[in-house]
Specification:
By secondary structure, the chain is mainly α. The chain has helices at residues 3-41, 51-66, 69-75, 77-84, 90-114, 118-126, 131-165, 172-182, 187-230, 241-259. The protein is elongated, with a radius of gyration of 30 Å. Keywords: Cell membrane, Membrane, Transmembrane, Transmembrane helix, Transport.
Length: 260
Amino acid sequence: MSWNAMRDVLSIATLDTLFMVWWSTVWAVIGGLPIGILLVLTGPGRQLQNSAVNKVLGAIVNIGRSIPFLILIIALIPFTRYLIGTASGPSAAVVPLAIGAIPFFARLVETAVREVDGGLVEAAQSMGGGTWTIIFKVLLPQALPSLIAGLVNTIVTLISYSAMAGAVGAGGLGSVAITYGQQRNDMRFVGVTVVLIVIIVTVIQLIGDLVVRRLSARGSRASAPVRLLKSPKSRTAAPDPEPEARADTAKVRETADEAA
């Protein structure tokens, strides 16, 4: 195959991979973010403490994370065909990719939100903040750097999942590596595919790290006044030495006048 034809195939495959990763990431955030927050809020001593809900959600997340992705794709073929109308192609691959990524991202969200200082939550509650206020004004802003880091890890995982999905006709770079590289014994496709995936992952990781660093620096500056308000230290004004000094000076002058 000529390089021009090869370039066209790889260009389409790259766009298919980005399409699958983008939409599965969107659905992973939509589904995983509320589940992760609920896992925290329904835990012991939290605002929405509910042991039954917490255990059910935890079990669903654990089961979803434990199923190998290739098996998940095969198991979801009837559901994907019912939902999309086909079980092959990039659009169909979004369904198992999103379902596999939701529990993965939900657990990362839970970990990030749990790291928020409990004192900030107590301060918000003492000022009359309700559950929604605590979520949107305290938990999410404070956990934002960790949430972005978890989102980057999810995207990188989805890229590898999309490559595996190519084995069952999902399209994308994984499908090109198998169809043109393995089956046609053209290792150029395998090499270029690996390079393209590495480039995509590297770019996403660099952008994610940059965003996390900036959010962390901004958050540390913004949270300093909050910490001061949270644990104010009683400060007593130092006594003014001037009245005593003036009194001592007056006494010295009186003694000098008497002596004179």
